[in-house]
Amino acid sequence: MSNPSMERVLIKGAYILSQDPEVGEFIGDVLVVGDRISNVSRNLVDPDATVINGSGHALLPGFIDTHRHAWQGALRGLDPSWTYAQYRNHVQIGLGPHLDPEDVRIGNLAADLMALEAGVTTVRDESHIMNSPAHADAAIAAHWESGIRSVFAYGWPSTEAESWQFGSVRPHPADIRRIRETVLSDDTARVTLAAMIRGPELSTMEIATQDIRLARDLDLQMSMHVGLGEWGIQQAAIRRLNESGLLQSDMLFIHACTSTDEELRMLAHHGAQVSVASSIEAFMPGLGQPATNRMLAAGLQPSLSLDVETSAAGDLFGAMRAALVYQQLTRAGAGGLMERGLSSLPTFDSRDLLAFATINGARACGIDHKTGSITPGKAADLIMIRLTDTNLQPATDVAATIVTAAHSGNVTYVMVDGNVVKSGGVLLQGHAISELASESRDRIYRRAGLSKPGRHDPAVPFFLKSGN
Length: 468
What we know:
9-stranded mixed sheet; 8-stranded parallel sheet; Urease, subunit C, domain 1; alpha/beta; 2 domains; globular
């Protein structure tokens, strides 16, 4: 997986969707030197470079998932019909206390490899499984091991989960200071640290103030979940932060489904960022609906996220489509509680969605100076999507084709920080993660004393090994 420090790679003849307005969209070449994009142009020549044939492919910056609870990677596909309350009771409260550090490592590794397979080169890991310092170390170790770029957002434990949310008076775990000082002190590294705090919607205002000051004392960007269903309407977290003078540009707000239009304008005024988990928000009653169009109307630049693999596919292709489907339903008059009709709201299209999944995601994570676009000098986080596959032909409009029809199998080449992690459509990882993940899942359920969701023949293994 590792490239020599100055290895040169020249990708030739790809359809480049750069996400950089100064570079543009065209058929051309990209030269990578070491871990950086060196040049983007037509007809590049470098006799010392390894040449990759990009003909018939779209070349994009890697997708950026701005909110994924990666510890649930070995718990994917449990039930897409759960409400938010059912998910929370079964997974976070029911299973969360029973993961040991090795289960967290395996879950994060499974999530990272799924992400890389689907062209997601950066994951902001919202890690609310900090049951002990060893759990934090294991989660971080998996991100280093997988080869993904990660913003590790240190959250709270899933032990005694009820005491950590919805009015909690418990301060953020102090172990985040150890991680900042001794584990993830380098903000230029591939794996960096952020703070996943609860804010005034999930804790008291006093605790939220204390947690925000801790994050700023450690010089960390912070995230918080807001606008969660009826509870979000009652708490008005963004307004309270604004009134207290705490609202600043170092904050990422996740969901904001039931945050008001006025609150969204407050975020834009202070330069804060937002993350839309469109698949989960569309699938999971109790959260509210995607606020993407209202965010645009407020002057925000939405990013996209997966959230939980327990109830939705772990790629951003589905998230892009879910956001688009909800917009179109709303235009047809089927909008949810917060919509006032899209006639007065801006809409988005395929190219906007690709921006949400790339450069907007980089801004949301505070790393747009590093990645998110195919720009000379940025990190070489690149993906290629084969447009000649049957489901994508004839790719009349490349962006629209990707958004409407692409999937993980069309992603043939993935590079993170100059290291090739997928080539020829195959992940270059030697992990037997499927067996590890199924064994971890079974251990967690056994410890929890819970039955696995779904109906299946008990004579057939829950995980079918390849070849069966």
